[in-house]
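Dissemination and training. As part of the outreach component of the grant, students in the summer workshop were shown how a complex can be specified as a set of sequence lines and then modelled as a single object. The example used during the hands-on session is reproduced here so that future cohorts can follow it. Participants entered these lines:
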Amino acid sequence: MIEKEEIEYEKSVLIGIINKFQDEEKSEEYLDELEFLAYTAGGEVLKRFTQKLDVPNPKTFIGTGKMEEVREFIEQNDVGTAIFDDELSPAQQKNIEKILKCKVVDRTYLILDIFAQRAKTSYARTQVELAQYEYLLPRLVGLWTHLERQRGGIGMRGPGETEIETDRRIVRDKISQLKDKLKTIDKQMAVQRGNRGQLVRVALVGYTNVGKSTLMNVISKSEVFAENKLFATLDTTVRKVVIRNLPFLLTDTVGFIRKLPTQLVESFKSTLDEVREADLLLHVVDIAHPNFEDHIASVNQILDEIESADKPTLMVFNKIDAYSPEVIEEDDLITEKTPAHNTLTEWKRTWMNRLGDNVLFISAINKENMEEFRKKVYEAVREIHITRFPYNNFLYPEYDKYTGEIEED
Ligand SMILES: Nc1nc2c(ncn2[C@@H]2O[C@H](COP(=O)(O)OP(=O)(O)OP(=O)(O)O)[C@@H](O)[C@H]2O)c(=O)[nH]1
Ligand SMILES: [Mg+2]
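and obtained this result:
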């Protein structure tokens, strides 16, 4: 449920392009996500603008005519922010600001902003701040170019440059301070992780808003903040979970998103170490989301970037309660069948079939199929645990049946 709190929502517009990599439908889906991001950051979207463009205009991202259309709308409707669905170059951002005379932000900035809003612990805040400064640094150059042009260059270049050089130095100093601070925290975290001993580590991973925290709450009876907004979780929660007689550690952590800013991947290194050091991944997918296949690809790409793509993984398709295939009416002879028309049974026969036993379909909210979930997780954890504690028999009486109550901590 999207509840409007007492926050003043800032009027904004979205701007995206359509090209051979993203057709009209894809572009629309990306803008849906951008709108959700905008909403999470406290923005209300009044209108979307799209333009067919093979390559973005290097100066202003979209073409002049389209830009004029956007400008008029912004002026007439008192819009505060224009949000672009791609990372803008520092120069583009400056140029556009000059034309639109409102705040101009891109997808990366928006994500950083949400992270900043949501970071609760000093650790998360430090990581976000570092990412924000990394984002800012090259943009100070843009500011300089802009000033230089405004002042006519010659003669004025000296002071302008000095000013900006000072700013850049301050930002660079800040970056290295934050990096030092993070290094210290990283060491503490590594020690903490070390202290957790030899227990098998399982990490919930997945796109943002798929239900990782909800699932964590269901299996560990803990209270992790879950909400229908993007990036509800920024910090890592680790819980000891016991299924039957088998204890293991379960981690809930930050969700991923398409085009997750590289600055964030880098500065959240330590948070992501939880994933990197996990023995088993539970890749949670929101099967009710029309773009869930793209989500899987984005998550896999990030897992690859953090060298975690080869870990044993269970694919957990969540929100089956909310899944409904699109229906083609019997007398409709035109509409072609697409994956969106698949029933769950049909989905199971697609590429999902190739995942073999490592697939689960659940509803964390309705606690549907949790028995099977526990059984599969138990088996996967057990397999790893056995190699680690080969003689620890008392923890492992052989269970050949999974009947009866499964005990929890
Ligand atoms: N219909 C339905 N909704 C669910 C289910 N599981 C979770 N949700 C909802 O999905 C939204 C996101 O849930 P979270 O648990 O916060 O998702 P998350 O993956 O932890 O999200 P981030 O921390 O933002 O990455 C919440 O509104 C949940 O109530 C489910 O099985 N069915
Ligand atoms: Mg969460």
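The beta strands are 10-18, 43-52, 81-84, 103-106, 201-206, 237-243, 246-252, 280-286, 313-318, 359-361. Students were then asked to discuss how this feature might be tested experimentally.
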